[in-house]
Amino acid sequence: MAPRVRFAPSPTGWLHVGGARTALFNWLYARRHGGAFVLRIEDTDAARNTEEATRAILSGLRWLGLDWDEGPEKGGDRGPYFQSARKEIYRRYVQCLLDENKAYQEKGVVRFRLPHKVVRVADRICGTVHIDLSAEPDLTVMRADGSFIFHLVNVVDDLEMGITHVIRGEDHLSNTPKHLALYEAFGATPPVFAHIPLILNKDGSKMSKRDAGASLGEYIAKGYAPDALRNYLCLLGWSPKDNRELMALDELIARFDLDHVHRSSARFDVEKLEWMNTRHMMDMPLARFLEIARPSLGEIASSDPFYADRVLAVVKDKVKHLSDLPEQTAYFFRDDFPLDPAAVEKVLRKPGAADRLAALRARYANTMDWTSTTLETDLKALAAEMGVKPAEFIHPCRVAISGRTVGPSLYPMLEVLGKARVLARFDRARAA
Ligand code: GLU
Prior knowledge:
By secondary structure, this protein is of the alpha/beta class. It has 19 helices and 14 strands. Strand 8 (about 120-125) and strand 9 (about 125-130) form a beta hairpin. The termini are far apart. Bound molecules: glutamic acid (GLU).
């Protein structure tokens, strides 16, 4: 039977990286086994839920590429399930508990008769755990105001939605005996439970909602590649048999399994994420890079999208974060870019540099085939003729066309800028 899994966040804040990882594990499990991934917003706590939080969850999941498979139609879009729209169903289940004397009313609230004993939980990741409910009071399932308690709606929905595997954070392990008791009361077979380890800060402290780096939104704003964050989150608490680290999405899908989810907590190491991010940007196909990078350029790129794409192709291997792109590519889009004073002093004012730049300008003015290969050949030929190293041309040329001493490979950069811009920039640099 194809598995049915779900991500069931409560919209009480922004999407936490732990939540994003839970969603990812569920999604990968569904995709790997040809099952369904259900998104269910657990918004029964009206006082704590916000629409903003729901929006952050949906946009965060979309950004990570985690699409959900079913849900009510909303204006042509497939919405997630919202528990706030399912009260009739919960009422029916509570009535059923009352009818069978498995629950009772007390001071307006409905309480479920918990089994006051030690309950055995067989968890797919944590193994067999025994949890003692003997001192637990009976479980409130419905409040006096008619609203429902998390445990009830969570179990009813998993049942109604035919969920086969509940993959969720370890913080819910202690709730599981109560959930098992509810399944039994409803005469239903419980799903497989798989509780995944918590995420800790790098120093080993528990990552709380307030910690820097705990919100998915921070990574989106900073301009990480979703591909990299997805890969990194996946390795927080899971690793494939051969401990491979850099993996594209199809590989993650093909390899993800619950058997290799770790039992111990995972530490969030932002340096490792940085490394992964740089590697992903370099390794990903150009088309994918363009897709994720274009929005970062925004308005700058709108007048000539074709040119903007060529610029992005040139800087691809040098980008750390997509949010750096406007600054990092500014000189491609405007001619009055600043010349770094230190670079002017060190490179352009170096004895002989002005003459070499003039000579290179004259050479390039005659270059007909404006391609990186020819530009390289021409520069090197000129250096040989003048008996100096190519670097003596490369450095002033780079400062002249970009204002700085570091950047993408020179010849592709020259090619993309085009002859007219390059020659004008040489003139401007000589006047500096
Ligand atoms: N709404 C719960 C949470 O956000 C869901 C727990 C579960 O996945 O069962 O923690």
